[in-house]
Structures are given as C-alpha cells and as structure tokens.
Amino acid sequence: MPLKMSISQARRLALSAQGFGKQPDSPPTLPALKRMLQRLGVVQIDSVNAVVRSHYLPLFSRLGGYPPEMLDQLAWGRGRQLFEYWGHEASLLPLSLYPLMRWRMAHAADGRGIYRQLAQFGRERQDVIARVLAAVREQGALGAGSLSTRQERAGPWWDWSEEKHALEWLFAVGEVTVAGRRGFERLYDVPERVLPKAVLQQPLPSEAEAHQGLMLHAATALGVATERDLRDYFRLEPGQGRAALDELVADGRLQPVEVQGWKLLAYCAGTPRIPRRIDASALLSPFDSLVWERNRTERLFDFHYRLEIYTPAHKRVYGYYVLPFLHRERIAARLDLRAERAQGQLAVHAVHAESIPLDAEGYQALAGNLLRMARWLGLERVQLNCPRAEGSQLRQALLSAAPA
After folding, report:
1. Is 79 exposed, middle or buried (0-12, 13-18, 19+ CB in 10 A)?
2. What confidence tens digit (pLDDT) does each residue in 145-156 have?
3. How far is the C-alpha of 370 from the C-alpha of 346, rounded, in Å?
4. Taking the model in full, what pTM does it have?
5. Helices 207-222, 98-109: crossing angle, 10 deg rounding
C-alpha cells in the first residue's frame, strides 16, 4: 500500500531533501559546498546576469555567503569536482554522474535527443567537425570565437558560426568538454585533458541502468515527487522515466506515496525522514531546482510562478527578474531584483506578497536576506524602489535590521 503524506509533510520532506534546514550560522566551507552539490546532483547554468549568474545562487540560498571562487574551482579549476553537460538544460553536475550521462552523448551522436538543426549539422558537416576537433586537440581550451572563419558579424541568439555548431555538436556527443570559461564563453578541450582518468575509465552502465540511477538521484534530491517530476529533473523522456520507475519500484528502491491533494501518485526513496519543521529563509534563483518544475511548485507551495524575462515590459505582472522568497515552509513573496553594480546597490524594484501576508518577523527575515545578498555580491547597500504597500513594510524592516 502507498504511504500517505499530508501536503505539509511533503513540503517539509522536499525542502529537507533540497538542502534547506536551519539558517547557516558560519561561513560555508569547501566540503560543505561539495556535499550540497552532490546532494542536488545538478545546478542549472543560465546566461542572464541581472543579479548574478544563476548557478551561483542555489548554494548561497542554502549555505549563505560563500566565496563564488569556490564554485569556480570545483567547476573549472585544478582538481575539479564538477563537469558541464546537458543535465537539466545546461548544467553543472558532480563527476560521479558522468557515466550516467554517456548514453545521452551516444544519443546525440545518433541524432537523438538534441536540436534537429544540430543533428543535421553533425550528419552533413563532418568536414567542419573534423577540422574543429583537430584544432582543439592541437591547441586546447579554445572558444568558438577564436575558431570562427565567418566574415560577417554574428546575429542575435542562435546565429552560430559553423565552428560554433561544430563545437556544440562535439560537446553534445562527448568528444569535447568544457575546460573553463572566459567571462561566460565556454572554452572547449578534449575530455582526457580535462576530466580525471578514473572518471573516464569507469565501466559504463547500460542505458536502462543509467536511467534508473538518474531517477533515483532525482528522488533523493526532490524528497517526494511524481513520475513526471522525477524524469524532469534530468530531462528524461516519458518512456525512459516510466521504465526506470517500474524497475525502481519493483526492487524496492522507490516506494509509492499518496500526497494530500495530488491527483497523481508520488514516490520517495527509502523510508522518508520528515523534519518536524523547516526554519529556512532564502531568496531563490528562478532556475533553482526547488522551483524549476512549475507544476510541482504549484502543488507543493500553491505558488504560480513564470519567468517574465521574455515578456514585453508592459505585459509583465511581477517584473523582469523575479526571485521567490522562501520563508518557514512556504514561498511567501517574490521580488524583482537587480544588481546595479555601477551604483554599488542591490535594487528592489518590486515586492509582491502572496495570499498569506508576511508578518513583521517575515519582513525582518526578508530584509536580512537582502542585506546578506548585497554583501555577498560586494554591493554597498539595498536600494528599495517599490511603491507598493509591501515596499513600505520592507523599508521599515531594512531600517531596523542589524548589519548582516
């Protein structure tokens, strides 16, 4: 028989699994970052830099003000612990998951699971691919710009040069990997010069075993989740997710759960240990794994969330770059934030409380989070530009807040 779980229990289990617990009271250490990254299994990368590049925020939300250079070291430095690949979109993943991603590289080589245009390029332009791979092997750690032979200026977004197409195809199939970044530009090299030999020489699981491993990791990271939630974590296809789920349930590694108010059956790994309370208070990246599956976010938190970056300004409801505010087991507000570095300030352009308003303690917690974020980003102050009633309440909390 499935376990039965109230929605509040499911919420606490999900928050605990995602690494939210008591508020951090000391500077995070490198081992703490490693443990958190292993727990999450995947951190999404995004190019938008309205506050800070998105991959830096999840660790700050859970652990507090760590030096961003720590993550750079783990991702792209000597003795790296992470690699870049298509996990949940473009992502950083622990090296322990590299063997579980090799099937996706094989699919890319066969023209499956990647953009049709890229697969077509892989079939038709092996001449460019061979030339680019030879250049990477000879020179190492190259960006697409240094290889481009196009004369005209690049256009917006996916207007890639042939060399960029070749590098992205080689990256998808695992012939090159990301050795580092120059600004936000990827620098590519062959895996044997970037990844540890022990990782590259590991025995490869079968495709089915890899799918099961990814679904199990997703279940551990999410706490309690439906089949669709689980496969979305590493972007598995429906057939892959369902087949893996059947095997995991059959051998007892996952067990079914009926969550109050959920129409679909959920699953959890092992016997769940549900905390009695979660005291976390945190600003979340729009690309945080706690909220990136929007339907699950609504089921768990009754929080409807959509990114409005690409929505015309006059049609936006909440703002350009809106961060949810997690407080005491619920998402209590959302803020349109911007790091205005030239002015040395973290600008709050809008504060929107949810249906249950924040109390005085909640606004104090929000003020503390904003002050800590500003300090972490090297900004001198929090600038409040919100004319709403919530802005007035936050202003009072900022004025009375102790130094973060």
Report:
1. exposed
2. 777 665 555 444
3. 8
4. 0.93
5. 130
